Amino acid sequence: MSKIAYLNNKPHEIEAGETMISFARRALGSDSIPTLCDAPNLEPFGSCRVCSVDVALEKDGPAKTFASCHTPVAEGQYIYTDSKNVQRLRKNIIELVLTDHPLDCLTCEVNGNCELQTVAARVGINSVRYPEGETHLDREKDLSHPYMTSDFSKCINCYRCVRACDEVQGEFVLSMAGRGFDSHIIKGLDQSFEDSPCVSCGACSQACPTAAISDVFQSKSIANTQKTRTVCTYCGVGCNLEVATSGGDIKGIQAPFDAEVNQGHTCLKGRFAFKFYKHDDRIRSPLIKRDGVFEEATWDEAYDYIASRFRGYQKEFGPDSLAGISSARCTNEENYLMQKFFRTIVGTNNIDGCARVCHSPTALGMQRVFGTGAATNSIDDIKDTDAILVIGANATEAHPVTGAKLKQFEMSGRTSIVIDPRRTELARYATHHLQLRPGTNVAVLNMMMYYIIKEGFADQSFIDDRTEGYEDFCDALFKLDIDEMESISGVDRELVKSAAVAYATAPNAMSFHGLGVPEHSQ
Amino acid sequence: MSKNLGDLGGRKGVQENLFSKIGEAAMATEGSPSPEEMDRLADEFLVGKANVYGTATFYDFLKPENRGKKVYVCNGSACLCAGTQEGLIADLKTRFDESEIGHMTCLGRCHENGAFHYEGKNYSALGEGQLGAALKGADEINVDRYEICASGEAVLTANFEGMDAYATLLKGVLAKESADVLEEVKAAGIRGRGGAGFPMGVKWEFARNAESDLKFIICNADEGDPGAYSDRYLLEQRPHSVLFGMIIAGYCMKAQWGVLYIRAEYPESFPIVEAAIQDFRDAGLLGEDINGAGFDFDFKIVQGQGSYICGEETALISSIEGQRPEVRVRPPFPAQKGLFNKPTIVNNVETLATVPYVIKNGGAAYAALGTEKSNGTKLVSLDSYFKRPGIYEVDMGTPLATVVNDLGGGFTEPVKALHIGGPLGGIVPSEKIDELTIDFESFNVGGFLLGHASVVCIPESFSIMTYLEKLMEFAAVESCGKCFPCRLGTKRAHEMLESANKGNYKIDTELFDDLLHTLEEGSLCAHGGGIPLPVKNALQYFGEELKQFFSKEGSHV
């Protein structure tokens, strides 16, 4: 049976566990209740109170006021999203905010794209009645950093930046300091962006509803109206990006909240490292080498030239005289087209990518074990796993958005085993760090398997149903000299044992490897 | 509130908590931790430097401005109304540099006043020539005296029968099923004495039903209400009762740790509570598998660092974790996710101290005391405007007039109002004293709040406008700053009251109404939500005195 609650006296179905604001947004639209501190990728926080609604137990009955962002909706409630009482409250809260906010909208970077401005207009503020009091309008701008900027005279203390730095990136660079009216955002030990441990992911800037935190590109400026959705090509995570352009120039990059891969997050590279696209060192048109000299050509000329030469070799020497090499910096789709072109148009299987250098052992190994040379889990499964094993991967550096998700997982205190010679960021937060000597992965993994089987944690029914050669495998394993493994790897056997037991006893475990594993084959 | 910071703090456990470490770092560097030490602690606890800095700057006794402070003068409302502090500060200035004099908000010497704190000891009402001796550390001058009396059944003020009797009682109860013990506590119907009045047994049951291999019972001994010192009385004179209550709570909800969060403003409480814990340890009632009941339990004392909001239970939990003590949203409730995101119950000192009586006499005996809806007895603390200031235990339902006239002996000079229940409690005009009884319902119906039942007298000679100005200053200074209405509203309200009191401005009546409405309806917790109550009481009952400060005539309520 579906459960019903009422929004402005009209019945709607409620979903288990949802907050009043989610309920209202689902039923009445995303803008049905104004808010300043709520954000799609952050936990409910309840600081601005602008989302307050009146709630009664009977139609037009006596109501109490609740902040809808963190109050669960219950069956039979009558929620009034726009009562006189609520309108009065919202208006007066915004009026208070404006007593400590510069009224320079017309010259502000985010004019027309400011959430405070939008909410103020919506609740109908036309004057600030308070007598002159203390303000924080004289706070200085921080322009120290190559990418990040701040102007805390425009800060409304919604904590969205602090929460983004914590809940999304997991970096804890930002916090509030002081208390009450004096509370203010700090970076590090009250340092500049440049001197703080900021990793420039830009999550705070994207989270900020005003111009208090922004970037050198002024990405939040409304002037950049043309937006293009694309996929980042820096690493294999595949973050979706929304590129704002004006007159063909990139003005700024944001991460869309509805992207499955990155949910409104991206990293320093995806968000800020785009200036190369128009760098002076780049070639601007196709070049054809004639008589040892590159000459500028049009695209038509270039394609005609490529086609004629390909056709020539194909005819003269056969299709296998040609080969294509693609790149991991291209998207999956581009790589797919490249191989399609070579197989069907050129007629050869001579197609390769730069990833062979790093990942041929990955593909081979996984194909033999799992039947396909690709990951068997999606990144989203991190949410459902009880333990992670990370080997030879420095994900917070190499794949920052996935790295941040792994770090979030680790901070929850669940089992996390990092096998790496370095004390990486993930190793720092791991419950188990097996700090092996470089090149001794096999010894450590053998020890782990040894202890899992010796301690009786092997899943016998799985082994019976789905494996072959298990007894030979065990024989080989039990012949290993643990003293020797310990001395080769330099990792204490008790530490390996405890990691092995933790991994084996987790209901669901997920493993991650990076190039620290397959590149040993070279 | 950060889930991550809670989990990371939990890795070290409550014994090694970040908050206590920041406190120790501050002690080592003249009252505020050094940047190097904050950096080191951040690294040790895997949190951000900003988090440690953000926490340190929140508290009066950790923030950089605290560095070099040597003597702290009480600026609580009872000392304010008594008018003793200006003279005290003048005296202290002859011995200290002005920069060495700080303040503490209520040392719980409301019965004597003239209170200050120096080198880990509190002093009050010093006579001629005693200041010099106090500063030299003369022990006998540190002692204060107040009346302690029960008008009916002595539940909380009964004499401590000795550790042997307690050990026998406790061993007896630990031999019973914890579910049966919980039923007995629930039958007593004790409602939380911290002010909210929520039934203690029901709270324990929530935590008992929460699945977790680690749970906490916290004793909220952060009695921050200026004018209240009944918890201080219990901590210093009946510590065994409080600890007994915590052990029973731990047994009923299956908690392993009892954490006492005691405010720094009560320095004398610490060694006394520590000694009482040692008594339980010596009796074999702490540690693992206590009394063979398969029950592990131990205590940890955490010292507050000067912040009123830490009396709010979720702020208190964040405080222990080393986070900024900002009020959390609910759900999740602490009974589900509290300290280090584990099931946690926070009970007030006085609430826990009732437990030995219930265990000894049964829940029904306790439930028979007091009124139908407000069971049991209540401690009331009376300030120095009473002829017999002190702590009085009365049955719930006892007329306020009995407390004021019979127990307190009446006033030493004409009093126009009583501020009852702390800063967020109501201002009761003298003519209403005869209409009220000491219980939750009577105060609610009257438009007041029983709260913790501390009584601060506002004498005829004291300006109600000045009282409101100071009250709102307290509200603004102690606001955690998380929610917009309280952070901005208490500040603007204080500015308006201050400016009007100086005669520079007449308060816009409509704007002030709007502001009180915003605080009351919009605030995240009872701090911002509660402060309008005494203001509205004052406007209602002292309208004539206050009207000169407002722009328009008429009702403000």
What does this protein structure show overall?
The complex is a heterodimer of chains A (522) and B (557). With 522 residues, chain A is α/β, with parallel strands linked by helices. Chain A has 4 domains: 4-82, Ubiquitin-like (UB roll) (Roll); 134-275, Alpha-Beta Plaits, CATH 3.30.70; 318-356, no CATH class; 364-513, Dimethylsulfoxide Reductase, domain 2, CATH 3.40.228.10. Chain A has 17 helices and 21 strands. Chain A has helices at residues 20-28, 84-98, 115-123, 160-168, 203-207, 268-272, 299-317, 332-346, 355-370, 395-398, 400-411, 425-429, 441-454, 460-466, 470-478, 482-489, 493-505; strands at 3-7, 10-14, 52-56, 63-67, 78-80, 141-142, 148-151, 174-177, 184-187, 213-215, 226-231, 240-246, 249-254, 287-290, 293-296, 324-326, 351-353, 387-391, 415-419, 432-434, 509-513. In chain A, strands 2-1-5-3-4 form a 5-stranded mixed beta sheet, sandwiched between helices. A 4-stranded parallel beta sheet of chain A has the order 20-19-18-21, sandwiched between helices. In chain A, strands 6-7-10 form a 3-stranded antiparallel beta sheet. In chain A, a hairpin with a 2-residue loop joins strand 14 and strand 15. In chain A, helix 2 packs across helix 3 (115-123), helix 13 runs antiparallel to helix 16 (482-489) and helix 13 crosses helix 17. Chain B is an alpha/beta fold and 557 residues long. Chain B is built from 26 helices and 16 strands. In chain B, the strands form 4 sheets. Chain B has a 6-stranded mixed beta sheet with strand order 5-11-10-16-13-14. Chain B has a 4-stranded mixed beta sheet with strand order 2-1-3-4, with helices on one face. A 4-stranded parallel beta sheet of chain B has the order 8-7-6-9, with helices on both faces. In chain B, a hairpin with a 2-residue loop joins strand 3 (116-118) and strand 4. In chain B, helix 9 packs parallel to helix 13 and helix 12 (230-237) crosses helix 13. Chain B starts with a helix and ends in an 11-residue tail after the last helix. Chains A and B meet through helix 2, helix 4 and strand 8 of A and helix 1, helix 3, helix 4, helix 21 and helix 22 of B.
